[in-house]
Amino acid sequence: MRLRAFRLVPVFAAAMLLLLPALAAAQEDSERLLAVEVAADSIWVVLAATLVLFMQAGFAMLETGLSRMKNAGAVMAKIFVNLAVALIVFWAVGFALAFGDGNGFMGWTGFGVPNGNVAEDFPGYAESLVPIEGQFLFQVVFAAVSLAIVFGSMLDRTKFQAYIVFGIVYIGLIYPIVAHWTWGGGWLGEDGFLDFAGSSIVHLQGALAALAGAIIIGPRIGKFRNGKAVPIPGHSMPLALLGVLILLLGWQGFNGGSSLAALGANFSDVILNTNLAAGAGVLGAIVGSLIMFKTLDVSQIGNGMIAALVAITAPCAFVDAWAAIVIGAIAGLLVPPLVVGIERLKLDDPVGAVPVHGIAGIWGTLAIGFFAVAGKTDGVDGLFYGGDGEQLWIQFYGVLATIGFTFVASAILFLIIKYTVGLRVSEEQELRGLDMAEHGMFGYPERFIEVPGAEPADLPPEPTPAPASASASSTATT
Fold first, then answer.
1. Is residue 53 part of a domain?
2. Helix, strand, coil in percent for the chain, rounding step 5
3. For residue 179, how far is the Cα from the chain centroid?
4. CATH number (domain holding residue 109)
5. Is residue 280 included in any domain, yes or no?
6. 80, 56 contact by CB (below 8 A)
7. Could you count the other beta carbons within 10 Å of the beta carbon of residue 389?
8. Structural domain that includes position 173
9. If 0-12 CB within 10 Å is exposed, 13-18 middle and 19+ buried, where does residue 37 land?
């Protein structure tokens, strides 16, 4: 028997030689497939991050359009410094606190991305096909959006240096801690709190800081007279509404890319819900504007779209299309009365950051408890699908925790800035305009100073043409 088995060895050897090319080809196909999967996921995440980055242009146009002409250049400078601070500080500190390995409150590994072992420093990304650099790019532009929201409520009166100081602490500590609670595997995530793309984590946080800043810095000069709010219109409504459209474009990546992968993620469903909500938000704001102002306020229509986008950001992956429309319509409908309500509280919020990003962010986060579909949430049903209300309760105390931490931390930080480096420009500087007071140049120089050749009246007179008959006579003589 042993001899017969020995005689089979050459047969097995020959069979293995014949199978080796097939095995090698199978391994090569497997490696090629993995490479394609890595490329697909990486391209989508980086593309989505680029769309979100472009939202900075949307905020720039929106805030510049709604600011006074004498402050237009200062607004653009603010956008640039906020983005710069977000990129550097989130790379050095924020990403580690938000997504590093730690406890339920904050992460504590992976400072200076990528510096160390990804699987150990960022266990939540250990099985991701997207390199950690790509994941960082996607998250840092989210942090930059949250910071951009903050100073919309403080336009036309804030010192430039205050942007820098607040931005460093907000991006380096406040924002990432709340992000860690859910997205980083912290205590809220363990409790089952859901926020797919950041109605609460990104937008509500930014609005809470904006509210704290608006309270502490006070209203613009002339905003409230004899106890009543006086309209201070922005200098360019077309510019502001262009900003809204740019934000809509960026939101395709904001929500769609939050799957953090292309394969196995139905991000087209997310993007559909996003756009349906945006459309409904515009219609809701039209109704709300007619009720409140008896006219179609263009700025409120734009704010209605943004509010709807904010509201759908948390539930966009968890609800059906009809629910997205309802969520967006309610958000848009709420904007006009909320803007009036904020003013009645003697709060000066030039871009409507508090109602648009704050109240709409709360509504969108809570909406998961009403409209969530079990097939999209690992078994969680909202109240309208027969749920027992547990998810709504989790969403509610998650919102309360965010409000308590972010508002208090931001208020303390703004007070420190106010009594140290200073938060608000002087009355003279505010009246003169921040373009000159803070930057020594105008955003629109031809509007404020004499520029040679800027106006037709400044040009030298054109020579008077010779009469036709004289011209003909001259030609004949020649």
1. yes
2. 70, 0, 25
3. 14
4. 1.10.3430.10
5. yes
6. no
7. 12
8. 40-439
9. middle
Q: Which residues contact 20 (CB under 8 A, 6 or more apart)?
A: none
User: Does the N-terminal peptide bond of residue 114 adopt cis geometry, omega within 30 degrees of 0?
Assistant: yes
Give the Cα separation of 187 and 46 in Å (integer).
28
Report the pLDDT averaged over residues 50-56. 98
Kindly write down the DSSP assignment for every residue of 88-152, as one continuous string: HHIIIIIHHHHHSSB-SS-B-S--SSS-S-HHHH-GGGTT-SS-HHHHHHHHHHHHHHHHHHHGG
Token pair, residue 47, equals 């593309």
Contact partners, residue 274, CB within 8 Å, separation at least 6: 251, 252, 255, 256, 309, 312, 313, 316, 324
- What tokens does 462 get? 């054109």
Q: Is 333 helix (H, G, I), strand (E, B) or coil?
A: helix
Residue pLDDT, tens place only, 391-431: 999 999 999 999 999 999 999 999 999 999 999 999 999 99
Cβ–Cβ under 8 Å, residues 335 and 286: no
Q: Quote the number of domains for the chain.
A: 1
pLDDT digit string (tens) for 346-371? 999 999 999 999 999 999 999 999 99
Residue 459 placed within a domain: no
> Of 451, 53, 55, 447, which Cα lies nearest the Cα of 236?
447
Give Rg (Cα) of the chain. 29
Dihedral of the CA atoms 395, 401, 404, 410 (nearest 10)? -100
For 191, the token pair is 């409790």
- Determine the residue type at 322: W
Best CA proximity match to 425, nearest among 212, 154, 57, 144: 154
Establish if 14 belongs to a structural domain. no
Give the pairing type, strands 228-229 and 224-225.
antiparallel
Question: What is the spatial distance between Cα 274 and Cα 306, in angstroms, rounded to a whole number?
Answer: 11
pLDDT at 27: 62
251 within 8 A of 274, measured Cβ to Cβ: yes
- Please give the single-letter amino acid code of residue 171: I
Would you state the torsion angle of the CA atoms of residues 108, 114, 118, 124, taken in this order, to the nearest 10 degrees?
60
DSSP 228: E
Supply the pTM of this predicted model: 0.89
Residue 340: phi and psi, rounded to 5, are -65, -40
Cα-based distances in Å from 282 to 199, 301, 335, 353, 368: 18, 6, 10, 17, 21
Dihedral angle of Cα 169, 187, 179, 215, to the nearest 10 degrees = -60
Ramachandran region, residue 465 (left: φ > 0; alpha: ψ -120 to 50; beta: rest): beta
Quick one: tokens of 360? 């709409």
